[in-house]
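hey so u asked for the seq, here:
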Amino acid sequence: MKAKVIFSAILAVVLLTVIGIYLFSINRDPKEEGITEINLYYASSATGTLECEKRRIRLPEDREEAVRAVFNEYMNGPVNTTLALPAADLKSITALIYPVEKNENIVKINFTKSFNALSESQKLLCISGMVYTLTELDFLRNIYFYVDNEPIVNMNGEAAERYNRNNVANNPSLDPEKRDRQLVTLYFTDARQNRLIPEERSIEIKQSQTTEYQIVEQIIQGPLGSSLVPTVPADIKIRDIKTEEGICYVNLSDDFTARHTVSSSDRISIYSIVNSLTELDYVKKVQFLAEGEKINEVRTGIDLSKTLERDENLIERD
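ran it, structure tokens below
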């Protein structure tokens, strides 16, 4: 009897373990298994332009293999029946995809001579679809296209082998720039104008601009919350923003120093930018510039000629 109880207990433990492993496996985040959501760009039968179809793909860590995985998935065609490959025989006329060029982050695609038989619009859709699809991979910027191992010729008869999202012929409805979303914390103030109040915001990050630039751009645009007020005048212009060795250089138009802000004190105005930028892990200090020149001025006890660190004391806590 005792042995039977022990056996039953062991069996129960084994069953619970098996059930636990099963439940764990079905509830695991697919991202843990290397699954990535990629946009594949196909031709729409309704509009004749490119539209994206989201696809979950298992991406290998090796870059060349990752490129091949996305390329092969694309060539398998869309799931959506209203979409199609830009050319019906695209898979057969695309002879080869060359390895990733490690130093330039490019790939090379070679079409057979049959590519020349396509209409100009089909050629453009083929190239655009592949460029937009493959540059979904963060490390890829440029694609080289060849026909029978010769650089592809554009409509002007020029050899134009390198294509990217900025120079490829694309649909007016497609934004040529890949964007990602990022949650940022911006600091504004309220009617009292003596404290900084955080406002979280999900913003689109453009590849052509630094995150720091877009954070200051958002501050200039002002708060979304109705209880908050702007800290920087809307007509202030950003000349350039870059970060080097932990110091973010914020180059603004000279009217930033020529007049006081209209809705908050100088200290609040300055530190709304400083504290917002230092939310980024790699920004430790901020140096303000006016038209590219250092500002030799002290405002509200702040020496603007020096780098400024984050001021936690100005932040209003719940």
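The chain has seven helices and 17 strands. Confidence is low (pLDDT under 50) at residues 28-32, 260-264.
lmk if thats what u needed
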